[in-house]
Amino acid sequence: xxxxxxxxxxxxxxxxxxxxxxxxxxxxxxxxxxxxxxxxxxxxxxxxxxxxxxxxxxxxxxxxxxxxxxxxxxxxxxxxxxxxxxxxxxxxxxxxxxxxxxxxxxxxxxxxxxxxxxxxxxxxxxxxxxxxxxxxxxxxxxxxxxxxxxxxxxxxxxxxxxxxxxxxxxxxxxxxxxxxxxxxxxxxxxxxxxxxxxxxxxxxxxxxxxxxxxxxxxxxxxxxxxxxxxxxxxxxxxxxxxxxxxxxxxxxxxxxxxxxxxxxxxxxxxxxxxxxxxxxxxxxxxxxxxxxxxxxxxxxxxxxxxxxxxxxxxxxxxxxxxxxxxxxxxxxxxxxxxxxxxxxxxxxxxxxxxxxxxxxxxxxxxxxxxxxxxxxxxxxxxxxxxxxxxxxxxxxxxxxxxxxxxxxxxxxxxxxxxxxxxxxxxxxxxxxxxxxxxxxxxxxxxxxxxxxxxxxxxxxxxxxxxxxxxxxxxxxxxxxxxxxxxxxxxxxxxxxxxxxxxxxxxxxxxxxxxxxxxxxxxxxxxxxxxxxxxxxxxxxxxxxxxxxxxxxxxxxxxxxxxxxxxxxxxxxxxxxxxxxxxxxxxxxxxxxxxxxxxxxxxxxxxxxxxxxxxxxxxxxxxxxxxxxxxxxxxxxxxxxxxxxxxxxxxxxxxxxxxxxxxxxxxx
Amino acid sequence: xxxxxxxxxxxxxxxxxxxxxxxxxxxxxxxxxxxxxxxxxxxxxxxxxxxxxxxxxxxxxxxxxxxxxxxxxxxxxxxxxxxxxxxxxxxxxxxxxxxxxxxxxxxxxxxxxxxxxxxxxxxxxxxxxxxxxxxxxxxxxxxxxxxxxxxxxxx
Lengths: 667, 155
Prior knowledge:
The complex is a heterodimer of chains A (667) and B (155).
Chain A: H1 2-8, H2 18-23, H3 38-48, H4 51-74, H5 76-106, H6 123-173, E1 177-183, E2 186-192, E3 215-220, E4 226-229, E5 236-242, H7 281-317, E6 324-329, E7 333-338, E8 342-350, H8 352-360, H9 391-401, H10 406-427, H11 435-462, E9 466-475, E10 478-486, E11 506-514, E12 517-524, H12 528-533, E13 541-547, H13 552-574, E14 579-582, E15 585-589, E16 595-602, E17 611-618, H14 625-631, E18 640-644, H15 648-662
Antiparallel strand pairs in A: 1-2, 2-3, 3-4, 5-8, 6-7, 7-8, 9-10, 10-11, 11-12, 12-13, 14-15, 15-16, 16-17, 17-18
Helix pairs in contact in A: 3-5, 4-5, 6-7, 10-11, 11-13, 13-15
Chain B: H1 20-54, H2 62-99, H3 101-145, H4 148-154
Helix pairs in contact in B: 1-2
């Protein structure tokens, strides 16, 4: 059995190269050949090329494979080792082919490569390659994902910024003119506050103040909020002042926007955004409101500058015959003399906030981030918010309640010029008259009417039975009052059973001031003028006359006194007395022929009472009782009895007593 | 209130301008804007679709780096198209601001009417205030002259 096995078993041993065999010495050490030169290597390589040998080898190998396959089925473990040996041999074979090929190429021999076949990758190799590719792709996609996220975030911010900016701009465009301009390749926007209604073709050559405030450039801050660039020191307000008044009477008006905070950095940015990166809608709304109010203030300031320019122009062109004389003219100031008494100063001054900033200086705490420099020319309401810093406002509130007409005059000046501008804009024509002349006459009228009013109030305070009633005329150059003399109600008198007599309960005197002219109109027993001139006049007439300011108190008192006399006369007639009126006296004839006269004495300078009464016994034939009484003194003649200042009731009772004395009473 | 200014070429409809040339310019502008819009949208869509198609994992590993570069390029192009779209939107907003004459004029007319109405209302209020002031003044005067203070002062 063992012999048979030994016969069937074949052991193949690789053939060692002869050279190597020869190189092995008796001991067993292999003597490696020395390094050959390139040529020797090349030659040896050429010699080695022997494909027939290789073919034989392959045949032998195939036979061996078959034999191995047979032997494999018999011995598994030997086949495994044999397979390994075979693979190594194949690898060696292929490597040798490649080496031969390389050496042939090195020898510059032409070698035709029939074909190269990549060995099919194993499944694990294919999967590994696929996994690497997938991982690479996933990493690339993740990187792209991050990139897209960043881009989307940036675009969202940009979209929101654009929405904020353009939304604000569109909302502001509803009220303001927005223009686009391109400066140096950069596109920008501006607010154009120029008002064309004030300019016309005829005004092209007129003196106009160049206003750099009419164009406001728009910018946006880092958060996309709209901001405006404002030039500094450019807010002016119109100021009216009567020369001789102190500064407290000067009309300085403060805008409500001063309460709103706005930044005024060196670049003049009006709105400084909050530190938030994404402002809320409320911030946007407040930004728009602030911008709108700032633009309104600028517009108002421009309007007041225009008003001043127009006033200047009209003063320059006006004739002195209109009663206006220019006594001073500067770039921002105009002094006028109206008539002979009134001096008016119209000027352009810095706004409240700018003056405050100037006074406080750069060290002011709220100069950098918040200032009131944009509060210019809004009208201040009468009731102002309580504020300790609000000194000027207290004086202006006093002004509003006092008789100082400066504030109302300023409003009126702006109003009439605004109406003029509107007329020009709508109808293309202006008013026929000079506005400045009209305004100056209005101012003069205001001053004059105040004087007249003070006189009237003074007189009325000293005459208890006279009331001063204001009559609003709603005309800028006309003022009117009524002096009402209310007589006491008397009992109705029955004259033989006949009907009641209707008697007046009051006497009215109308005082009208028109362009410096005083007109009086009222009922009296005789004309007051006639009392001065001695002319005869019809009694019980409604008369009208003019006077000047100096004679005005006397005229008024005469009128009132004559009305009292007239009332007394009527009362006397009612009771059946035979009386007659004469200027300021009521005369009653006595049986002896004497005349008992009740005289009115008027004295505007009397501190206690302006109208006092004197009872006089006049000799018969005396016509002018008033003159007679002036020529007498109480101490010299017992014919005069001073009754002093009496109320109407007292006068009536005196009259009744006189009636009894006279004995002509029919009561 | 004055009408807005701005460039004459606007986004208004064709044929609505005062002259044929301005109408043609407006139409041309409209076409160009639409063209830009279409280009941007198509760029975005193409870039995205190509990104998706290139995202497929291929067998040869050599192509992966090439495809990665291609994906980056397409992503950049996508973002650039989106940015161009945003700019187009800004431009459209500016056009609406400055060239929408019909809407601007209508807005101006509405504001003028509103302000006129307010002016009338204010006038009426002022009249009413004046009348009330006159009435109050008259009442105060009658109260004063019938008051004890004035009568006592003269007694």
